[in-house]
Design a protein that fits this description.
Number of helices of chain B: 7
Order of helices and strands of chain A: HHHHHHHHHH
Order of helices and strands of chain B: HHHHHHH
Distance between the termini of chain B: 162 Å
Helix content of chain B: over 70%
Largest sheet of chain A: none
Number of strands of chain B: 0
Radius of gyration of chain A: 18 Å
Strand content of chain A: under 5%
Distance between the termini of chain A: 44 Å
Oligomer: heterodimer
Radius of gyration of chain B: 56 Å
């Protein structure tokens, strides 16, 4: 399956999808991008359970909306856009409900990450996660896409529908904030 | 540690301390998670898609199936009632026909077995002749035979063969009688 994932192009997947082989196309698409999309969402929300819910909803949405994909952007940046929007909506909704404890003073993300059976990071990784979580949601998405996913700015521009210049500025600010956070907690 | 790429170069150009830091993934997922998620999403989707496509192509009016069941029930009930009344009618007709047949058979058999002519027909002609001879009633024989013959001929097609043979025998006798007279 790994070889198949790398061999099948997005164009082939789309042509399958447009030729009444939608099930087959969707399977290929999910096999190819499922993990990348999940990790992107996971870095945004940290919890595996939340990431699971969001990514599952995202794939359901992809299936329903793939018909409307016009090809103005690359398929994979479109997938990332859907995933990012789902994650941002989730975080907004959580804040509205007041269930996000991260912004309160007595919230201990470090303790939560240490207690998480699906987190295996060292002290530095806990710290950088804390620093990233201190960023505004959209800036966090910019930082994660660039720093962890190593995405190009023009691709990020397709995902976040923001200009390349704006993204560069946002990323640079994020880097400085994180550095400052890490230095401040050393 | 990152391999050299434009992200690393960018961090260097920003004089960021993150250049020297690892950017590994500290997060984990349960074992086999991705295949399980993939299967559950597909199951969820393709089940749903099946229902959607079926309902798109083949639509029925609202409450169609419940109405259809009601209509079928009503039709079956009506048919059962009709069949029941027809059966009752046929039974009545059959009973009447059977009774009529019995009457017809009775009417056919009963009177012929009780009539005088039939009683005479069942007697042996020689016995009759002997009886008439003994009683001195020979003279009456001709007239009696004529009457008998007329009656018997009128029933010849309905009566049995013994009566026919009696007629033939009587004719023979009559012929002899005539010869004797002439």
């Amino acid at each position: 399956m790994g070889e198949l994932k790398s061999l099948v192009t997005d164009e082939q997947i789309l042509s399958f999808f447009n030729s009444e082989r939608k099930d087959h196309a969707f399977t290929l698409l999910m096999d190819k991008y499922q993990e990348r999309v999940y990790w992107h969402v996971r870095r945004m929300v940290l919890s595996h359970e939340d990431a699971n819910d969001i990514s599952q909803n995202m794939w359901l949405k992809v299936w329903r909306k793939l018909d409307t994909f016009k090809g103005d952007s690359q398929l994979y940046t479109w997938l990332y856009r859907v995933a990012t929007n789902e994650a941002l909506s989730f975080l907004r909704s959580k804040k509205r409900k007041g269930t996000v404890a991260i912004e309160t003073e007595d919230y201990d993300l470090s303790a939560e990450l240490k207690a998480d059976p699906y987190f295996d990071g060292d002290a530095y990784q806990i710290k950088i996660q804390e620093a990233i979580q201190s960023l505004p949601d959209k800036q966090r998405a910019v930082f994660n896409l660039r720093y962890f996913d190593e995405m190009k700015y023009d691709e990020m521009s397709e995902v976040l529908e923001t200009s390349v210049g704006g993204l560069k500025a946002s990323y640079h600010h994020a880097v400085k904030k994180i550095e400052a956070y890490i230095k401040g907690t050393d | 540690m990152r391999k050299s790429n434009d992200i690393l170069e960018e961090l260097k150009s920003l004089n960021s301390s993150l250049v020297d830091k690892p950017a590994g993934n500290p997060f984990k997922v349960p074992e086999g998670y991705f295949s399980v998620q993939s299967e559950s999403v597909r199951e969820l989707l393709f089940g749903q898609v099946k229902i959607e496509s079926e309902s798109d192509v083949f639509q029925v009016p609202k409450d169609y199936f419940s109405k259809q069941r009601e209509t079928l029930k009503a039709e079956l009930l009506e048919e059962k009632t009709n069949r029941g009344s027809l059966r009752t009618l046929w039974r009545r007709v059959g009973s009447i026909a059977a009774i009529l047949c019995l009457f017809a058979l009775g009417a056919y058999l009963w009177p012929s077995s009780l009539g005088d002519d039939s009683v005479l027909a069942s007697l042996d002609e020689q016995a009759i002749m002997n009886y008439l001879d003994e009683e001195g009633l020979d003279e009456m024989l001709f007239a009696s035979v004529i009457d008998t013959e007329t009656d018997l001929w009128s029933e010849i097609e309905l009566d049995d063969s013994s009566v026919s043979s009696y007629i033939l025998d009587s004719d023979d006798l009559l012929i002899n009688e005539y010869l004797d007279y002439e």
